[in-house]
Amino acid sequence: MTPPTVSEDGHIRLIRSVSFASWILSALLVYISSLLPLFDSSPRVVLNEHQSWITLAARPLLRWDSFHFAHIARSGHMYEYEWAFLPGPPLLMRGVARLLQILDQRRPFPAQAASWEYVLLGGTLAACFCGTASTLYYLTLHHFRSRSFSLLTSLLSLLPSSPGTLRLSGYSEPFFTYLSYKGMLYCTSSDWFLATWCFALAGLFRSNGVMLGGFIIWGLLIEPFLAKEKISASRLAYTIALTSAIFTPFIAHQFSAYQSFCVPAITPAPWCSYFPPAIYSYVQKEYWNVGFLRYWTMQQLPNFLICAPVLLLLLVYSTHYIHVAFFPRVRAFLSPPPRTKTSPFSPPDSSSDASATKSTLFFPPSLAPHAIHALLFTILILFNAHTQIILRLAASIPFTYWGAAWLLVKHPRWGRCWIVWSVVWGAVSLVLWATFLPPA
C-alpha cells in the first residue's frame, strides 16, 4: 500500500507556519539583545525619549543601513552618499508609515515628515508580507519536479545567513529577494512581461537588479539558440525592449541625481564630467571604498572568513553544475551530428542512461541561467565589493538553497555542517546586529 503524500497546499501551510515561528524567535532574540550595551548609541539619541510602546518597538530596528533608509524616507535624498541607496525601501517605509499614522486615532495626520518610529515599523511590516519561501517552493517544484525537495529547499531558506536584514527590518533585501523570485517564477511559464515587471520593481531596491535581465535574455534568445531554433527580428526587438525596462529604474535614479547635482549647480560635482555621469559608482568608490580588490586587505580577513561558507557553497555548486550539466550541452551543440546510426538491434547503454538520470536529478537543464547568474554574481561580490554583504544577498539567489539541499541529500555530512552553521551564525548575527556590531 502506497503511503499518502502531503499535498502542495499542505507543504505551503507548513512553510508558512515554520516561517512565522522563526520570525517570532528572531524578533525575540533581537529585542532581548537590544537591551545589551550598544556599540553605537545613536538609536537612543535619534528616537523619542518617551517610553511609549511604539518607541520601544522601533528602537531595536534602527541599525546600520536602517539609518539611511529611514532618513531618505523622511527627507528624501539630501546628501551625496545617500544616492548609493535606491528609492524602493524608503518609498515603502514612507507609505506604510503614513498608513500607520492615519490608523493611530490618537494622532492627526501630520503635515510634516513621518516620525522615525513609524517609518521603521513601516519597513518591518512591509517586509513581513514578502512570501519568499512559498514562492521558492513553486520555483523549485518547476525545476526539480519533486515536492519533497521543494519543501526541503524552502525550509532551508528559513535559515538565512542574515536574518536581521532579511526578515526584521526595512532593508532592500526582503523586497528584492521576493520580487526576484516572483520574476524567476514567471520566467518558468514564459510570462516574460510579468517577469520583466517583477525584475524592474526589484531594480528599485538594489542595483544588481540589472543582472536579472539575463533571465529574460536567456529565455527568449539563448535557450532557443541552443535548441537550434531560428531567432526572429521581432523576438530580438521584444527582448531588447523588456531588458531595457529592467534597466530603467537604475538609469532613472542616476538621471535624478544628475538633475540635482549637475544641471543647476554652479560648481558641479566631480562625477558630472564622467562618462557616463553615474553617481552610484562614484559614491561607492569615494564613500565606501568599493572597487576591484580594494577589500582584499589583511584587516578584512575576518570578514572573508565569516562569509566563506556562503561563498564556497555558491562557487562549488554553480561550477559543478556548469561542468556536469551545462558544458556537455554546449559541446553537443557545437559538435557535428553523428554520421552513423545506432543499430536497432544493439542493446541500450545502461551506464549512459544511469549517468544521464543522475545528472538531471540535481542538475536539471533549466537551472543553467541560475547557475551562471550565481557564479557571476559571487565572483563580482568576491572581488569587487565588501565581500561580507554576500551574507545579506545570498538569499536573493535561489541557487544558494538548492545548493544547500543538494549538500544535505548527496553529501549529508556537509549538509548537516551547513545547517549547524546556519543556525549558529544566524543567532550570532542577530545579536551582533541588535547591539550595533559588525558585520553590517
TrEMBL record:
Entry keyword annotation includes Transmembrane helix: yes
Gene Ontology MF: a single term: alpha-1,6-mannosyltransferase activity
GO cellular component assignments: endoplasmic reticulum membrane; mannosyltransferase complex
A Pfam family hit: Mannosyl_trans2
TM region positions: 20-39, 118-139, 151-172, 192-221, 233-252, 301-322, 361-383, 389-409, 418-436
GO BP: GPI anchor biosynthetic process
E.C. number: 2.4.1.-
Intracellular or extracellular location(s): Endoplasmic reticulum membrane
PANTHER family in the cross-refs: GPI MANNOSYLTRANSFERASE 2
Recorded family membership: Belongs to the PIGV family.
UniProt protein name: GPI mannosyltransferase 2
